[in-house]
Amino acid sequence: MDIALLAHEKFPDEAKTALGILRYSDDTVVAVLDRDSPDTRVHDTVPDVQDAPIVASIDEVESYDALVIGIAPIGGGFDDTWRDDVRTALKAGKDVISGLHYFLEDDEEFAQLADEHGADIWDVRKPHDDLTVAQGIADSVDAEVILTVGTDCSVGKMTVSLELARAAQERGIDAEFIPTGQTGIMIEGWGNPVDRVVSDFTAGAVEEMILEKGNDHDYLFVEGQGTIIHPAYSAVTCGILHGSMADKLVLCHAAGREAIHGYESFALPDFSTYRQLYEDLARPVHETEVVAGALNTRSIAEDEDAQAAVDDFADAIDAPATDPVRFDPDTILDEVL
Amino acid sequence: MDIALLAHEKFPDEAKTALGILRYSDDTVVAVLDRDSPDTRVHDTVPDVQDAPIVASIDEVESYDALVIGIAPIGGGFDDTWRDDVRTALKAGKDVISGLHYFLEDDEEFAQLADEHGADIWDVRKPHDDLTVAQGIADSVDAEVILTVGTDCSVGKMTVSLELARAAQERGIDAEFIPTGQTGIMIEGWGNPVDRVVSDFTAGAVEEMILEKGNDHDYLFVEGQGTIIHPAYSAVTCGILHGSMADKLVLCHAAGREAIHGYESFALPDFSTYRQLYEDLARPVHETEVVAGALNTRSIAEDEDAQAAVDDFADAIDAPATDPVRFDPDTILDEVL
Q1: CA-wise closest residue to B51 among B63, B40, B38
Q2: Is B273 exposed, middle or buried (0-12, 13-18, 19+ CB in 10 A)?
Q3: For a 10 Å CB count at each end of chain B, is N or C smaller?
Q4: What is the pLDDT of residue A66?
């Protein structure tokens, strides 16, 4: 499928969804929409993902199958300056895919345009209707379950889970990625948006996916969310930890991060505190262990400095660690398999 | 307001909502509906709450203002054998109040009957539309925040919070109860159903209530939910712990409970484990402490045995404890004020 990625005024640094799709999707990105950077290319700022031209609006994209909203502002609202692009796509009969909390299919104009022009709107963050409470049986599947947990939001948990699943597949191992957030769902084409389900069903939404996939594969790499000490999002993290009944954990951190992103008055505790919290909290439901760490070193210029930061992180969490994007995921993979 | 309480086949042992209303509501219960126990009275089985006749259907209730669904089956569905009672109430122009996950106002027949006969349907578990993520500022209010936390579901957290708030008020202290579940909301007439909100908004739904009430009172007694080690519901517990930024915790337990209710393969850990988990998990967001324990001794016949169980519990959690319903709440209140 050929897709156009909407990322106005946010590409690349604040366009987590767009970057995830550019890096991992099997779809071809034919254009990125960012009115702040017209006539440039993705590779001008992000060299290690698929390349695409950056244009100011969807009018400049000649041929595509779907328009994907590639940014997710805090709160998940729809920015009305995007309306022209979405309108144009729907009028051309193109599908529109969105991970916003604001559901495009509930927008009267968009719903009508989609109907008139035979276009589909896929709100990936809209949970399906049959979700329910967890039964506490995710550990009954054959697969080994590996969950990424974090020191904060936006430290790379989805990336690490995807990198590990793909590296395992390259070794000939039957591994599957379990998506829990909008970007992962867009990349894989399925999954439950765990941060958008009824709070009572948080663990159940994860368990459902594990029961669905867990007997068809040898390893499941579950995408974690948030952090267990987040002032706003810890509920989701806790539900995933208990609902997944993970056998092994990979602790993810972004080098240099010292406070909760967007909640700067909350300092991050020691790495050893995280390790202990995740393990102690999981234990009464399912015994688990932090077996490795993943450090996002994007903010560090030199490889040598990045390696030093990785070594410090490994010492602090008392487990092997690496940056699976900058270096390679083998160090972690050897611990989880 | 005069209310009729629907509790078919479940009164009293499995009718938590009905019992809570009978014990704490300012409304007058004119009848309990239980087709299994017609021609009996509440006081035949539960002596320490307001008394009411038990009848087989709403047809036998002469005068009332509202019908309240007083039972909450696992999953929160609507039992179609209750339809006649609800239909009869709506046709008589009486309001219907429900805490089910299944929203009665979305039921076509009920919605139409309510409309035709000028009756209101209040689905207390339907969250309001303006909920959003927590800001991490619940500690900015003037009031001291006291949260009940539990070793399991259904151990008496709502009861303990209500007993403490009322005992404080009787001492002339300006205290307020913060309801987070359907029964508490029905008793108080307001509140956010925290187990029914979008998972990302769990902490936010609690924070919103604390910000609304926290500068008008000296103490807020927040109703806890679930337990932090619940295989299905821990997300809600975690969101309340962090969203409330509680200054003090009261650990609640039901004497004799050894495994998670309904999830019997999960043994309860030591009480010291709970204390440590709640305190360690809260600390990075807001420092707090388990200052007292509340033991539900309903299952113990003799007061002397109940007191012995309370003493053991106090030793195990290393804090003063009592059963605030059987004895009195002063032991706990002295610790939290």
Answers
A1: B40
A2: middle
A3: N
A4: 97
> Which residue, B71, B90, B123, sits at the end of a domain?
B123
CATH number of the domain residue A248 falls in? 3.40.50.300
Q: In this structure, what token pair is assigned to residue B129?
A: 């539309």
| Bond before B12 cis per omega within 30 degrees | yes
Reported residue count of chain A is 337
- Residue A203 in contact with residue A166, Cβ under 8 Å? no
**Residue A246 DSSP class:** -
Is the minimum CB–CB distance between B275 and chain A shorter than 8 Å?
A: no
* All residues at 6 or more sequence positions from A275 whose CB lies less than 8 Å from its CB, including other chains: A251, A290, A317, A318, A319
Where is the domain boundary, A90, A123, A156? A123
Model confidence pTM above 0.80: yes
Same domain for B157 and B267, yes or no, is yes
Q: What is the mean pLDDT of residues A269-283?
A: 97
Phi, psi (deg, nearest 5) at residue A62: -75, -45
- CB interface of A with B, residues 286-315, below 8 Å: none
Helices (H), A118-260: 157-170, 182-188, 202-213, 234-244
Assess whether A159 and A34 both reside in one domain.
Answer: no
* Residue A265: closest C-alpha in chain B: B136
Contact A32, A11 (CB under 8 A): yes
Same domain for A91 and A54, yes or no, is: yes
Does pLDDT of B101 surpass 90? no
pLDDT of residue B293: 98
**Alpha carbon distance B337, B335 (integer Å):** 6
Considering the domain architecture, whether residues A284 and A162 belong to the same structural domain is answered as yes
Render pLDDT for A7-22 as a digit per residue (tens, 0 to 9): 999 999 999 899 999 9
Look-up of token digits 């689905």: B123
Tokens representing A193 are 């948006």
At residue B168 the predicted structure's pLDDT band, cuts being 50, 70 and 90, is very high
Q: Taking a C-beta distance cutoff of 8 angstroms, is the pair B67, B45 a contact? A: no
Contact by Cβ (8 Å): B67, B89? yes
**The pLDDT of residue B72:** 81
Cα–Cα distance list, B107 to A285, B80, B87, B115 (Å): 37, 12, 11, 12
- B269, B228 Cβ separation under 8 angstroms: no
Q: In 3-state terms, what secondary structure has residue B314?
A: helix
On whether residue A132 sits in a domain, the answer given is no
Task: Enumerate residues 160 to 219 of chain A having a beta carbon within 8 A of any beta carbon in chain B.
Answer: 194-204
| Cα angle value B32/B35/B36 (rounded, 5°) | 105
Residue pLDDT, tens place only, A94-112: 999 999 989 999 999 999 9
For A148-161, the pLDDT digits (tens) are 999 999 999 999 99
Q: Which residue of A has its CA nearest to B206?
A: A232
Q: What is the mean pLDDT of chain B?
A: 96
* Residue A101, min C-alpha distance to chain B (Å): 10
Q: Which residues of A touch B201 (CB under 8 A)?
A: 199
| Range A257-260 contact pairs with CB under 8 angstroms and sequence separation of 24 or more | A257/A151, A257/A152, A257/A155, A260/A152, A260/A153, A260/A227, A260/A229, A260/A230, A260/A231, A260/B136
- Pairing relationship of beta strands A53-55 and A40-41 according to DSSP bridges: antiparallel
Sequence-ordered list of residues with C-beta below 8 angstroms from that of B104, at least 6 positions apart, any chain: B78, B86, B96, B98, B110, B121, B123
